[in-house]
Amino acid sequence: MADDTRRKMEEKTTNSSTAKNEQLDQHSENGEGQYLTTSTGVRINHTNDSLKAGSRGPTIMEDFHFREKMTHFDHERIPERVVHARGSAAHGYFQSYGPIPELTKAKLFNDPEKKTPVFVRISTVVGFRGSADTVRDVRGFATKFYTEEGNWDLVGNNMPVFFIQDGIKFPDLVHAIKPEPHNEMPQASAAHDNFWDFVSLMPESMHTIMWVMSDRAFPRSYAMMEGFGVHTFRFVNAEGKSKFVKFHWKPVAGIHSLVWDEAQKIAGKDPDFNRRDLWEAIEMGNYPEFELGVQVVDPEDEFAFDFDLLDPTKIIPEEVVPIKMIGKMTLNRNPDNFFAETEQVAFHPGHVVPGIDFTNDPLLQGRLFSYVDTQLIRLGGPNFNEIPINRPVVEVHNNQRDGFMRQTINKGKTNYFPNSRGGGCPMMAPETAGGYLHHMEKVEGHKIRERSDSFKDYFGQAKLFYNSQTEIEKKHIMEAFHFELGKVKDKEIRQRMVYMIANVDKDLAVKVANGIGINPPTDEAKIKEVAQDHIPREKVKSSVDTSPAVSMENRNNKKGSIKGRKVAIMIDEGFDYETVMQVKKKLMDGNATAEIVSKFHGMITASNGETLETDKNHITTASVLYDAIFIPGGAKSVARMKNHGDVIQFINEAYKHCKPLAFSGEAVELLENTALWNLVKEPQNGVNVSKGVVMASNNDNMGDFSERFMECIAQHRFWEREDMDHDSIPA
Ligand code: HDE
């Protein structure tokens, strides 16, 4: 790009949310209306045959077009991220709710008029780049803020705690959880011997393990999960006063997850499930939104908790320090090119702006080294910040030069500081001109490889998490252990894990043991032995026994909206057009989507002669891909569907996954034909709702019917249906 074009672009920069988009647009070439050229700009007149000596002869070395095209192709792949390889991303903007100068001088928080461009990449951790979205895993939640003071990266996860307390253990953790080295199995799964061997020897991981065993490990949508900065960071204000902060993203659409059986089936039916959901939501204008919140702790209160603020395996319960909402992020544009943007984006927790600073959390300190190091190998050299998606929207001036793939053409004679020949430029910025000043924390101590005793309460918050869950969530955690440990072949590892779990909750450990053919944890000495150097913390004034906020089932976390949900409307020839239209409109009004599903693709004629085109047929979709199902009446349509095994399976499976189902008119007869009929109450006149199944035998009150159906969709799951499985829980 010409230098003056770039300068003009950079001049526009900061105040507009579209600045980053415009900057990127300068780099995109879609070739519309253009001739095909080589990479050096020579027009090509034929690309379907290589240059040969005679039409049946050998290919000629001279064919520069062939060689250039093939060489580029041969080098198309770069190393995937060693963790978080599978990711999906979106552009958007962040807007502050109001100035907070008392907390931080960072400009992005202090002007509510300003829209700061962002790029967010959400990822799974363990799977390879082509692995499925819906596996049980932590999700990465990395946000790059292109602020007027430079880039700030908030590189967080959808769980607020981490497996380990010190960065030096990260390679071990990742080796243990990735596929085993001898046979590279299993893909994108922790359910194997190496991982649980590691965990059974690492009591500090138990709090995070409890989160990973919960349904938070397979979000329904990236727009329906929380995000956390995990570490304690610092805010610093203009007076240089610092406060501890924990960052939180709260999804406006509420927190919702899949269920495990569903998640596994989706991994086969649509491995791109979450990626597609994010993409389609943005294409439809259903923009995912997240509020940014902070928990703020005064420096005087650093030691006021029953855990160490520097320990990344601990949360500050929201009930102890409430979250202050400071702004909102809206994701409103899909990337133009996956590789150029989503793959090449390079996050780094060390990318901070004035007003945001670090603490001595040893995990954070480890990360501050690792992220630049990894980009050097992944992106091939030190110039990765010049890749369009990584470039700040402000100008960059320094004496860094050369290296692989240098983009900038620096002018001038000097490339060092101090200099007189370049007028002393680029010069250092005093604080008043926005120069970054590190918070002047006093540090002293002996050089020592040791962990502070204040980090050694390994189970207190694992208990807190478990005790804060509803019964159904506890059941799912138990089932997750049955699955994960059930796949572990080595009985000694399973046994050690049962002892480890006993340190969190005895009753849970017994239930887990009974489900995986292992002795219940009766030996107190062994329970203590696996706990290693665990030191339970004394209760203090701020201690709590439960934190309702960590339960997804907590009503405040669910929000009661239908935004972003997807409903299958199953029809056949002769369906009732009016009810379909009515329900569809209600869904659209709530920013949910409806798909018309039928046995075959094509136009389907309703009983009144109107037609509707199908979006999916029985083969291209499945009930696991929807949040709810609606089957309208229409005598002929229902009579046909009664004979379709796929429809019956749709209904049964949706019921098993505790999703809302709605039947109107003759469609109620369809339900009568299924084994579910005995499980839901017999419908009376009018509209009936039983365990999330909405029924209306006649079409007199469709308004009420749609209303009740929407309420059920907002509730999402009807866990009482899992009651029938309760007998099978070993106690
Ligand atoms: Fe990362 N992490 N991490 N991590 N991490 C990477 O950086 C690392 C940790 C997180 O979408 C890598 O560019 C170490 C915690 C996200 O591009 C790598 C330690 C949290 C992403 C790396 C941690 C995260 C990464 C791989 C322990 C939540 C994806 C490729 C000291 C707060 C970013 C890359 C994206 C990616 C190292 C622990 C979040 C290797 C050494 C804790 C969201 O550098």
From TrEMBL:
Say if the entry is tagged with keyword Iron: yes
Q: Which Pfam families match?
A: Catalase, Catalase-rel, Catalase_C
What are the residue boundaries of the Catalase core domain, all occurrences included?
Answer: 37-425
Give positions of region: Disordered: 1-56, 538-557
Reactions mediated catalytically: 2 H2O2 = O2 + 2 H2O
Q: Where is the composition biased (Polar residues)?
A: 35-50
What is an example of a GO molecular function annotated in this UniProt entry? catalase activity
Identify the EC number(s).
1.11.1.6
Basic and acidic residues: which segments have biased composition? 1-13
- Sorted alphabetically, which keywords does the UniProt record give? Heme, Hydrogen peroxide, Iron, Metal-binding, Oxidoreductase, Peroxidase
Indicate whether Iron appears among the record's keywords.
yes
SUPFAM superfamilies membership: Class I glutamine amidotransferase-like, Heme-dependent catalase-like
Q: Which metal ions or organic cofactors does this protein require, according to UniProt?
A: heme
UniProt similarity note = Belongs to the catalase family. HPII subfamily.
Which PANTHER family would you find in this protein's record?
CATALASE, CATALASE-B
Q: According to its UniProt entry, what is the function of this protein?
A: Decomposes hydrogen peroxide into water and oxygen; serves to protect cells from the toxic effects of hydrogen peroxide.
Name-wise, this protein is Catalase
Q: Which organism is it from?
A: Aequorivita aurantiaca
Q: What is the lineage of its organism?
A: Bacteria, Pseudomonadati, Bacteroidota, Flavobacteriia, Flavobacteriales
